[in-house]
Design goal:
CATH class: Alpha Beta
Largest sheet: 7 strands, antiparallel
Number of strands: 10
CATH architecture: Super Roll
Shape: elongated
Number of domains: 1
C-alpha cells in the first residue's frame, strides 16, 4: 500500500498535466530589496554603491531589464560620480541546489554624469566583459526544499522560468 501512494500521485500529476507558479513583480522587488542598497570596492580604487533596481519585464525577449542608480567614490581623491547602469538577463533554475540563476547577462547602457563619451564607451565595454564573466550563472535566489515539497510530492519538477508582463512564470511538469 505504501508503494502505491507515490505511484498514484505520479499518475495524478501525469493526468493533471503541466502547472505554472507565478511570481509577481512586487515579490521580485521585495526579494531584491533585501540585497540593496549595496556597496562594493572595485580594484581598491572605487567604492560603488548600487541602489534598488527598477525592473522592466521583457516578455517578448524572455528577459528582465534592471536599471540601477550608482554612486562611485574615488578612494584616492574623494571625487564622487553618479550614474546609472542598465543590464538585462534571463533566468534559469538549477535543480542541484534549488537556485534561480542569471542567464546570459548583458550590459545595455552605462551613463555616468560628467564622464566624457569616450570614457562612457570604455566603461560600457569594461562593464560588459565584467558582467559576462562574473554574473553569468550567478545565483539570485535559493528556494527552500519546502518551497518545492508539495510539487515534488505531487510528482512535479521545474521545467523552466519564463518572464511575463506581470512577473515570472515557473513552469512545472510531471516528472518522467
Amino acid at each position: 500500500m505504501a508503494m502505491a501512494i507515490p505511484v498514484m500521485l505520479a499518475a495524478c500529476a501525469s493526468l493533471l498535466g503541466p502547472r505554472t507558479v507565478e511570481i509577481s513583480r512586487e515579490e521580485l522587488l521585495t526579494k531584491l530589496g533585501k540585497q540593496f542598497p549595496t556597496t562594493k570596492r572595485l580594484m581598491k580604487l572605487l567604492d560603488v554603491t548600487a541602489a534598488l533596481p527598477t525592473l522592466d519585464l521583457q516578455e517578448e525577449k524572455n528577459r528582465v531589464s534592471a536599471s540601477v542608480d550608482l554612486t562611485a567614490r574615488e578612494l584616492l581623491m574623494g571625487q564622487e560620480y553618479k550614474g546609472k547602469v542598465t543590464l538585462s538577463f534571463g533566468l534559469r533554475f538549477e535543480p542541484k541546489d534549488l537556485t534561480l540563476r542569471l542567464n546570459e547577462p548583458r550590459i545595455e547602457q552605462v551613463a555616468v554624469e560628467g564622464l566624457p563619451p569616450v570614457y562612457q564607451r570604455a566603461l560600457s565595454n569594461l562593464g560588459a566583459k565584467l558582467v559576462e564573466e562574473t554574473l553569468n550563472d550567478y545565483p539570485v535566489h535559493q528556494l527552500k526544499p519546502e518551497d518545492l515539497r508539495t510539487a515534488d510530492r505531487l510528482g512535479y519538477q521545474v521545467k523552466d522560468i519564463a518572464v511575463t508582463h506581470t512577473g515570472l512564470a515557473v513552469h512545472l511538469i510531471p516528472r518522467p
